[in-house]
Design a protein that fits this description.
Number of helices: 12
Order of helices and strands: EHEHHHEEHHEHEHEHHHH
Structural class: alpha/beta
Shape: globular
Helix content: 40-55%
Strand order of the largest sheet: 3-4-2-5-1-6-7
Radius of gyration: 17 Å
Number of strands: 7
Oligomer: single chain
Length: 260
């Protein structure tokens, strides 16, 4: 536990247009830790539904999913499902693929998620949004709704080029859709800290991202896929300090910002 909470809602999008960077794994880890601090909602905005599965929830067994909420077919409070970790979840299945097409004709298409979240804001202190691996309409909805953006980045050189494109998109979102969006930081993932390439990537990130915090790296570990298969946040699945601690540091930073 990190101490007393201030009770001011923060919405955090976890996004990177590249897949395979531990975005969903990081969302599960952070949401699980934050749920121990206060009411927390995890929103699965990726049609693959890995966030839902990784929290042990079968979205196909639920009456409503993110698709129904973002297309205003049902209110969010009717669609939120509990998990066995004290964390609330807005689950997703493949039906979310249809959402971008459905929203295209809507004048408020960039703000559908923001509007959908409104009735639930008083219930939670943190809302985490797991974005799809693209910069399409769903991700833009998340960035339009969010206060903060966390960017997981795999510790490989080619990941840095993609990061530059994402940062350009963020600048566009801030100027056109959400001037209050701020970058919480970059979270290096799948780091093999004893290799030269990982050390070089970390140095490059810290030197090139002026004004952007680069968090301590999350190590590469078999514990992460194992915890996802078990449907448990990493800190529930294992007490292994080195894999949990980087996420605790991100949570600590969030709670300090909340109290500021």
């Amino acid at each position: 536990m990190f101490g007393r909470r201030a009770g001011r809602l923060m919405i955090i999008a976890i996004a990177n247009q590249k897949g395979g960077v531990a975005k969903t794994t990081s969302t599960i880890a952070l949401a699980g830790l934050l749920a121990e601090e206060g009411p927390c909602l995890a929103v699965d905005l990726d049609p693959q539904g890995n966030l839902s599965t990784g929290l042990g929830v079968d979205a196909s067994s639920l009456p409503y999913t993110t698709y129904d909420v973002i297309t205003a077919k049902v209110g969010i409070t009717e669609a939120i499902a509990p998990t066995r970790f004290g964390l609330s979840l807005l689950a997703t299945d493949i039906s979310l693929v249809k959402a971008e097409k459905d929203l295209l004709s809507q004048p408020d298409r960039f703000y559908a998620l923001k509007s959908a979240l409104q009735p639930a804001k008083s219930q939670f202190e943190q809302i985490l949004i797991d974005c799809p691996p693209s910069l399409g309409l769903l991700t833009l909805n998340a960035l339009s709704a969010a206060d903060w953006l966390l960017i997981p980045v795999q510790c490989q050189f080619f990941a840095i080029k993609g990061l530059e494109g994402l940062l350009e998109t963020i600048d566009s979102v801030k100027s056109r859709l959400n001037p209050n969006l701020r970058v919480l930081g970059v979270l290096p993932t799948m780091a093999e800290t004893n290799t030269v390439i990982t050390q070089d990537v970390l140095k490059l990130l810290r030197s090139q991202l002026e004004g952007v915090r680069v968090f301590d790296p999350v190590p590469k570990s078999v514990r992460f896929p194992e915890s996802n298969m078990a449907g448990e946040p990493i800190h529930v699945f294992t007490r292994e300090w080195r894999v949990v601690q980087p996420y605790r540091e991100v949570v600590r930073e969030l709670l300090m910002l909340e109290e500021a």
